[in-house]
Recover the amino acids of this structure.
């Protein structure tokens, strides 16, 4: 459908209504487009174009749009930065709102709680092309977000064992920003992160 060609791969309800403004009953048209898979409803008010339009959507951009404020983190971010060998299907994000998970036609999106003081530290705005961007944790912040939730870790030995299980790329340890790690630890103010910073300094500084 020609009227949809001008839309970006990811778009909201208002933008869709504007594209269909010449129709007498645009809401009926939207229902028809959804049934015909010209557009895919990700969640209420958020859509992506169907495959026939050859405009692939970006899951990272979608993640920021589905629930916010949020930024991509954890294993998802570590995979993005080529810091772990595993392929991660679940898109993991942090938010200052309550935790939530969305199962959508285009994938699963999980949002975990981050305290407000820690939230803005160590996140980057990445270019997704077509004048689109998304927020994602630096590799240090991604690891800290994971470790902050490991309340079972009580010693440096347990932290070292946990890091070994993470199978992080050796390049991660070679390029660590320790001042950023300390800033994140201060924002979170959690014991596992204190153990992380101390373990990394003892091993790599």
């Amino acid at each position: 459908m020609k009227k949809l060609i001008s839309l970006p791969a990811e778009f909201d309800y208002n933008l869709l209504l504007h594209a269909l403004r010449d129709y007498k009953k645009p809401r009926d048209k939207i229902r028809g487009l959804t049934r015909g898979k010209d557009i895919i409803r990700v969640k209420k008010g958020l859509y992506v174009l169907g495959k026939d339009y050859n405009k692939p959507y970006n899951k990272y951009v979608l993640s920021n749009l589905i629930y916010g404020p949020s930024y991509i983190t954890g294993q998802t971010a570590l995979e993005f930065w080529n810091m772990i060998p595993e392929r991660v299907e679940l898109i993991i994000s942090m938010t200052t709102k309550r935790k939530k998970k969305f199962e959508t036609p285009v994938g699963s999106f999980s949002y975990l709680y981050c305290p407000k003081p820690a939230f803005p530290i160590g996140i980057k705005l990445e270019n997704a092309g077509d004048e689109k961007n998304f927020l994602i944790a630096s590799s240090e912040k991604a690891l800290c977000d994971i470790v902050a939730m490991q309340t079972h870790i009580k010693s440096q030995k347990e932290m070292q064992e946990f890091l070994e299980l993470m199978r992080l790329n050796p390049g991660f340890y070679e390029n660590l920003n320790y001042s950023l790690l300390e800033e994140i630890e201060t924002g979170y103010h959690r014991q596992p992160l204190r153990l992380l910073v101390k373990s990394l300094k003892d091993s790599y500084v």
Observations:
- The chain has ten helices and nine strands.
